[in-house]
Write a sequence for this structure.
């Protein structure tokens, strides 16, 4: 059974009218609401202990999907199942456990860690509040968590600004881990770090995976970052999953033209050559996404049908999903 499954999840944001639109409205002009389709019927699953990489350009909806999966934001449509059940239908106790089971780690620990709290409180607050530990064991539990993520427990009384970027990333991870989650949504969790520190934090994520049987939704705009750690990779383009398959498939023989373009943009150490034509053009605005296949204005294989019909995400081989009309050709 899947640990987490997003089913037909959509998210729309209504942008507030800007000043010009407000003035036009006051003068009697019709004001059109700007609706951002951040996610459009997204299906995605993560099995217990599995690492799923979520890759896409800026604005493709990665963080929105991550926040919905972690329960920090509600979907406009569709549902998120935890162990096969819609979390909203669970009784209060089970619902609380289901939400605690999915924790989020953010890109910029400086803005996600309260600068006025000591590390002991940052890590210890939630487990105490949710009854994961009692007050008597709270201090030793914080020490244990700090040891687990490679921080010296002697620094528990310090504040976030007294740590390096890599250490702050570890504090964010310890805070997430402290409520004993089954899964971590890591949203660009290493993007702000130096390359050598990135490798250390990835190693920590992978050690925690083995030690605690943790699953991950590992969000990155960089295919190169997820290639070493993900079991499966989902490629997101303008709010739609365009390909979802085993990492070795997506990285070696991607099916979707957008995945091919992403891969082509990834520098190859072995050959120094690009395997496919590089990606051209800007990502279109999610305020006004192209009709049909969202990728058609940039796709080198676009056919007339592509600007009319949305290609559904279909299984093209066992466990390999892709959303491209080219797969219908015999
Ligand atoms: N609270 C919000 N209000 C209005 N629009 C939003 C809101 N949150 C996200 N969006 C819009 O939804 C779309 C998807 O945003 P999201 O942050 O999920 O993308 P992302 O893939 O995480 O991008 P990045 O790589 O830059 O982090 C964007 O167009 C964004 O502007
Ligand atoms: S459906 Fe058409 S436009 Fe979209 S990726 Fe496939 S060939 Fe390209
Ligand atoms: Mg984001």
């Amino acid at each position: 059974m899947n640990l987490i499954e997003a089913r037909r999840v959509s998210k729309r944001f209504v942008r507030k009218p800007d000043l010009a639109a407000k003035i036009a409205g006051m003068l009697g002009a019709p004001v059109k609401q700007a609706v951002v389709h951040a996610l459009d019927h997204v299906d995605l699953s993560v099995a217990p202990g599995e690492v799923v990489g979520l890759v896409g350009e800026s604005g493709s909806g990665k963080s929105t999907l991550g926040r919905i999966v972690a329960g920090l934001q509600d979907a406009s449509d569709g549902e998120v199942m935890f162990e096969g059940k819609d979390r909203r239908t669970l009784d209060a106790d089970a619902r609380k456990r289901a939400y605690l089971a999915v924790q989020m780690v953010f890109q910029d620990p400086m803005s996600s860690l309260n600068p006025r709290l000591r590390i002991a409180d940052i890590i210890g607050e939630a487990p105490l509040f949710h009854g994961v530990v009692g007050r008597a064991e709270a201090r030793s539990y914080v020490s244990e968590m700090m040891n687990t993520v490679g921080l010296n427990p002697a620094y528990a009384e310090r504040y976030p600004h007294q740590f390096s970027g890599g250490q702050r990333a570890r504090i964010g991870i310890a805070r997430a881990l402290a409520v004993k989650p089954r899964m971590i949504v890591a949203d660009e969790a290493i993007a702000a770090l130096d390359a050598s520190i990135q490798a250390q934090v990835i190693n920590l994520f992978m050690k925690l995976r083995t030690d605690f049987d943790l699953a991950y939704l590992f969000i990155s705009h960089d295919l190169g970052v997820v290639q070493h750690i993900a079991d499966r990779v989902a490629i997101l383009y303008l709010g739609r999953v365009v390909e979802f398959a085993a990492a070795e498939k997506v990285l070696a023989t991607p099916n979707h033209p957008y995945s091919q373009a992403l891969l082509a943009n990834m520098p190859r150490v072995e050959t120094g050559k690009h395997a496919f034509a590089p990606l051209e053009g800007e990502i279109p605005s999610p305020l006004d996404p192209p009709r049909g296949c969202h990728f058609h204005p940039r796709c080198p294989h676009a056919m007339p049908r592509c600007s009319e019909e949305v290609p559904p995400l279909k299984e093209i081989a066992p466990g390999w999903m892709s959303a491209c009309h080219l797969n219908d050709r015999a």
Notes: Residues 24 and 30 are 8 Å apart (CA to CA). DSSP finds eleven helices and twelve strands in the chain. The first strand starts at residue 4 and ends at 15. Residues 62-63, 187 surround magnesium ion (ligand 3) (CB under 6 Å).
